[in-house]
């Protein structure tokens, strides 16, 4: 029986985020480079949603509608808060330094992913 959610489903997305923010911090800030990296980041941002939603539904299928609604609301709240914080800090920091701040939530997400993957794998072995 195949698990509905596999921990490796999110590794690619988290790695893509980290690479994009890291490269934004070190590569020259030309329009072409920035647009290419934002395209790269946008591709990886779409890889996260389906595995996360599948995991939520697998955890509590009887509450799937409210879980998916809360997940979407939380996602959009996080995007809004991140945009607000980034725009507020843009006047105080160089854009390259500011993009490096994007690595902090990526690192936190990576640690949370590892902890959750260990818990899931230890409680539900294949």
Structural class: mainly alpha
Helix content: over 70%
Work out the helix count. Answer: 5
Q: State Rg.
A: 17 Å
Quick check: average pLDDT?
79
Strand content: under 5%
**Distance between the terminal alpha carbons, to the nearest Å?**
8 Å
Number of domains: 1
Q: In terms of per-residue confidence, which ranges show pLDDT below 50 for 5 or more consecutive residues? A: none
Total strand segments = 0
- Taken in chain order, the helices and strands follow as HHHHH
For the largest beta-sheet, the strand count, sense and barrel status come to: none
Gross morphology is elongated
Characterization of this structure:
Keywords: Membrane, Transmembrane, Transmembrane helix. This is MFS transporter. InterPro entries: MFS_trans_sf. The chain crosses the membrane at residues 12-43, 63-85, 97-116. This protein has 126 residues and is mostly helical. The protein has one domain. Helices cover 82% and strands 0% of the residues. The protein has helices at 8-26, 31-59, 64-90, 95-101, 103-123. The model has no long low-confidence stretch (mean pLDDT 79).
């Amino acid at each position: 029986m195949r698990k509905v959610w596999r921990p490796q489903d999110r590794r690619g997305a988290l790695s893509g985020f980290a690479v994009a923010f890291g490269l934004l911090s070190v590569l020259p800030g030309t329009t072409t480079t920035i647009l290419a990296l934002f395209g790269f980041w946008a591709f990886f941002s779409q890889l996260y949603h389906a595995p996360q939603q599948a995991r939520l539904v697998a955890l509590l299928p009887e509450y799937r509608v409210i879980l998916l609604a809360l997940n979407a609301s939380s996602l959009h709240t996080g995007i809004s808060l991140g945009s607000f914080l980034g725009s507020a800090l843009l006047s105080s920091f160089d854009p390259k330094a500011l993009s490096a701040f994007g690595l902090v939530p990526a690192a936190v997400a990576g640690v949370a992913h590892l902890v959750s993957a260990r818990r899931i794998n230890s409680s539900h072995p294949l």
